[in-house]
Amino acid sequence: MFCPNCGKEQTGDSSFCYNCGQRLLQQELKPDIGTELPYTKQEQNTKQNNTTETPETGKIKKRHGCLMAYLIFLIVVVTVVGIYYVADASYLKSTLGLPEWTLPVLVVLCVLEIVCAFALLKWKKWGFWGFCALAVIALIVNISSGLEVTSSLTGLVGIAVMYGVLNIGDKENKGWTQLD
Length: 180
Prior knowledge:
Mean pLDDT: 79
Radius of gyration: 22 Å
Number of helices: 8
Distance between the termini: 31 Å
Order of helices and strands: HEEHHHHHHH
Low-confidence stretches: 44-49
Structural class: mainly alpha
Oligomer: single chain
Helix content: 55-70%
Number of domains: 2
Largest sheet: 2 strands, antiparallel
């Protein structure tokens, strides 16, 4: 048996490809050159749309375009901010008068936010709760470092936006209801 997605030969009688995780049909044939592989309508939709199938449940999960765009935006922005913290640490410390411990803590928070964003891309609910915890920690770090409260609250606004984006769509397409 060969996987219709990646073409790897399968051993045993698994329902999913050991290489790429694609759901396998009961009777897969080795593809001949020039012939198309037989996909079910559900598998074609999975390939064409922004959907994933979880091997544990076999359930198709569809990510709303706004959620995908927001997560990618978040990953890019947090990465740039983290790099800025590292690259201009001495300037930020002298200009803002930040304590020595502040920037390394903020860089670690940036890395953890990126981890949480990837967790949400993998449909893990803990990614959202991680964002919530990190926003509160960042708020505490910013206030204790002497930054003004209004700029420190932007992380909490980001959590509200994320929750809203997770709840866009009808009942089946809401990101929130699909999180594990």
